[in-house]
Design brief:
774 residues, 8-stranded mixed beta sheet, 32 helices, 25 strands, 44% helix, disordered C terminus, DNA-binding
DNA sequence: ACGGACAGTTTTTTT
DNA sequence: AACTGTCCGT
């Protein structure tokens, strides 16, 4: 299951001239080549067979990008142009890597395992592990995830008395990450970059952060690239060795590379210059992670002899879907430009893209669930997907699907490895593996409660800092053995025991010991709540995952930091619910694209940021549409609840940017107001309806638009911290008031309140009337 | 040391 | 709505 085995060093250590090829057929057979290439079209064939020098393959959606990449690798190996371990193929996601791995295996068999195939981060990690000491780390360093980084930054900011509310660790993390993505260590950070950053003294905090990471013997995600690049940059001999090894380098999704990845590739490809980059500038959706579309736009400047091949035959979608997607993306400026056309062998008779408007997101979700029910006949559920802009949107679909009895899986979102209990357990294991890891240690030192409070920890922290040791190490030397410190010694003794056990027992056994002997499992078992039950189950599941898949603690910890459990699509037959970002590289026969509302999609932040950000949103929409093979449904709602507050929505501008001949619109609003009976409204234009509706009603007086029959009445009790004021409802120190005139809140008797409302249930009753007042 | 009450904030996408 | 941080009583 591991994409490539990090313990397998032989392919590297043996001088490559002397290396015998394992399992590769030395004799090239023509029929093999024919079998490999026969299904390719002319464009694809050229991309596979252009083996010398730099090559840019501009591959539009659905034009067989992965096929070209894998066939190219197979071709190189079969034609004996390189040995498997002399070929490196880099992807962005584990999903893409494992798919390529699988396809390659089917083409050339087990030797596929020798190809350096993996994500940028994984290959960076492989290099960094070998040469960690060059950057002042020991090779068993830990990998910090985003959460760890935030916590560390928060710690640092607090030490310097920075107001964490005003200057959040998250924004600092973003700034530091952007430095790393551009390839700068604190020492080399240009003043101008620091000055332009949105966080004050970011250069100082960056330096501080890197130093702390080093003392913790840890790196963060971006370091995997940055530091592996530094290692090679500072050791020309070493770099030469790698440059000599990699005769062929292939890159997937080149449009999403950032500067450090660009430099990293350039350095590694220096030996042979056989760099093949595949990408699509219209699908660049990771600029917030430092991706520079410019990398792909100026490829031919960087590699002047580079050839460019365009793949424009689309084997995936109907003409209607392609037409809709193309007419939308045409609104973007500065594209390299491609014209996708339906492949002649693939002419599909298609339906128009459906556009539907709904009253609220619940109706939208239930429509999708019912439509799925209807469409499942003669189709696999896994051929259907719901693609959302943000993770929070998945919730209502989950609810609707489970009520309709439809199997579904949410990809991404709340991940297994990000659950509290799993993170705690991982923290325990991290301390076992790497006692210097103060972050992990602090996380679990008093979990379950061991009578070690904040005050004692403060003392220990101070002591540890003055003796330049980790918390764990400094426990023994601390000049006290009372109260919390006695408990600290106890827990340390346990950790030492587990470390010793690791020498003699299988990792799985030790993991089990840790879970039970620490009292962590007991802590949740003793709790009667529904939640705790699930946590106990999850912990059990974690143990079984460990016993099935991981032999060493290092392998396990590496896996949890680099590979998310939900990276891969479920093997079961179920509907996939995921973000648009997560859907890149996938295809489905029918795709649902909900939540196309201003502020949701395009996201509010992109609207605030301006044209460039908006273009990226548009590319995201393009990615979404082109995932569909046969059908696509776009929908939006008139009311949306975001963070517990109701808000009016207006249909996304993207809808009006799509050539209407590819669209079929219909209203599913089904509201109970008098609005429904108005004849002058055109129900075939639901996105206009939504905006008109709120324009008409937005600032209206309470009763406007209500017909008496649809007006309901309900009484409710005020909560402890609520009161009715003249302008609205007072809750604590916050005052809320009614919006849109949907209802009137009237104090009746004591804490009883009478509310008029329109066709909404009790739970929803209050929220639409409440809006925070500054 | 610990838990409950209260106030205030959150606000995208991922390796 | 769900979450964090702080204050305060036990």
């Amino acid at each position: 299951m591991d994409i490539f085995d990090l313990t397998d060093d032989e392919s590297f250590d043996v001088p490559f001239e002397a290396k015998e090829q394992k399992g590769v057929r030395n004799v090239y057979k023509e029929d093999q080549e024919n079998a490999l290439l026969k299904s390719l079209n002319k464009e694809q064939l050229e991309a596979v067979q252009t083996t010398e020098g730099a090559l840019l393959v501009l591959a539009g959606a659905g034009t067989g990008k992965t096929r070209v990449l894998t066939t190219r690798i197979a071709y190189l190996i079969q034609k004996n142009l390189c040995r498997p371990y002399e070929c490196m193929a880099v992807t962005f996601t584990n999903k893409a890597a494992s798919e390529m791995k699988e396809r390659l295996f089917n083409m050339i068999g087990p030797v596929a395992g020798d190809v350096w195939l993996g994500t940028f981060h994984k290959i960076g990690l492989k290099i960094l592990r070998r040469h960690a000491q060059e950057v002042g780390l020991s090779s068993d360093f830990n990998i910090f995830n985003q959460d760890d980084s935030f916590r560390l930054l928060k710690l640092i900011l607090k030490e310097y008395d920075v107001d964490v509310k005003k200057y959040s660790p998250k924004s600092l993390a973003e700034v530091i990450d952007s430095f790393k993505n551009k390839g700068f260590l604190p020492e080399s950070l240009p003043k101008s970059l620091e000055a332009g950053a949105s966080f004050p003294k970011s250069g100082f905090f960056y330096r501080e952060y890197q130093e702390r990471l080093r003392t913790l013997n840890a790196v963060d995600f971006s370091d995997l690239l940055l530091l592996s690049f530094e290692v090679l940059k500072n050791n020309p001999e070493l770099a030469l060795k790698y440059q000599h090894q990699f005769r062929y380098i292939l890159v997937d999704e080149y449009q999403d590379t950032n500067i450090i990845q660009y430099l990293w590739l350039k350095l590694l490809a220096k030996g042979y210059g056989n760099l093949c980059c595949v990408g699509d500038d219209d699908q660049s959706i990771y600029s917030w992670r430092g991706a520079e579309v410019e990398n792909i736009l100026r490829f031919s400047e960087d590699y002047p002899k580079a050839k460019t091949i365009r793949l424009e035959s689309n084997y995936r979608s109907t003409a209607e879907i392609l037409g809709a997607a193309s007419s939308l993306i045409a609104h973007n400026k500065g594209r390299l430009g491609k014209t996708l056309r339906v492949a002649p062998t693939h002419l599909l008779e298609g339906k128009q893209v459906e556009v539907k408007g709904f009253w609220d997101s619940k109706k939208e979700a239930y429509f999708v669930a019912e439509d799925v029910s209807y469409n499942r006949k003669g189709r696999r559920l896994s051929d259907l997907a719901v693609l959302v802009r943000a993770n929070f949107q998945t919730r209502e679909f989950e609810e609707a699907f489970s009520k309709e009895g439809i199997a579904y899986k949410v990809i991404g979102g709340f991940r297994f490895y990000e659950r509290e209990e799993i993170k705690d357990m991982i923290a325990y294991l991290r301390v076992v593996a790497q006692p210097k890891d103060d972050m992990a240690f602090e996380r679990i030192v008093n979990k379950p409660k061991r009578g070690i409070g904040a005050a004692s920890l403060d003392k220990l922290r101070e002591f540890a800092a003055s003796s330049h040791q980790s918390l764990f190490e400094s426990i023994d030397a601390y000049p006290s053995n009372k109260g919390a410190f006695a408990h600290l010694r106890e827990i340390k003794a346990l950790f030492v025991k587990w470390q010793e056990d690791l020498e003699v027992l299988p990792f799985f056994e030790v993991a089990k010991e840790v879970l039970y002997e620490s009292g962590y499992m007991k802590m949740w078992k003793d709790e009667a709540s529904f939640e705790a039950k699930g946590k106990v189950e999850n912990l059990g599941e974690l143990l079984s995952v460990i016993s099935a898949d991981f032999e060493t603690i290092t392998a396990f910890l590496e896996h949890v930091s680099l590979v998310m459990d939900t990276d891969e699509l479920s093997k079961d037959d179920c509907v996939n619910i995921m973000t648009l970002h997560g859907a890149k590289g996938l295809e489905f026969s029918k795709v649902y694209l909900p939540g196309w509302e201003e502020g949701i999609f395009p996201h509010q932040k992109s609207l605030d940021e301006g044209e460039k950000a908006l273009e990226e949103e548009r590319r995201l929409a393009y990615v979404g549409l082109t995932r569909a093979k046969e059908e696509a449904v776009i929908s939006f709602v008139a009311n949306r609840q975001v963070y517990g507050q109701w808000q009016a929505s207006i249909a996304s501008r993207f809808l009006s940017e799509i050539d209407s001949k590819y669209l079929k619109t219909s209203s599913q609003m089904g509201m109970q107001s008098s609005f429904e009976n108005k004849e002058d409204e055109n129900f075939d234009e639901p996105y206009q309806n939504a905006s008109n509706f709120f324009r008409n009603r937005g600032a209206a007086s309470p009763q406007k638009g209500f017909s008496n029959s649809s007006l309901s009445r309900s009484t409710t009790s005020l909560k402890k911290n609520e009161a009715v004021t003249e302008n609205g409802i007072k809750r604590g120190s916050q005052v809320y008031h009614e919006i849109f005139g949907y209802g009137v809140a009237v104090q009746v008797d004591g804490n009883k309140v009478e509310v008029y409302f329109e066709g909404l249930g009790r739970k929803k009753l209050m929220s639409p009337f409440l809006e925070k007042v500054k």
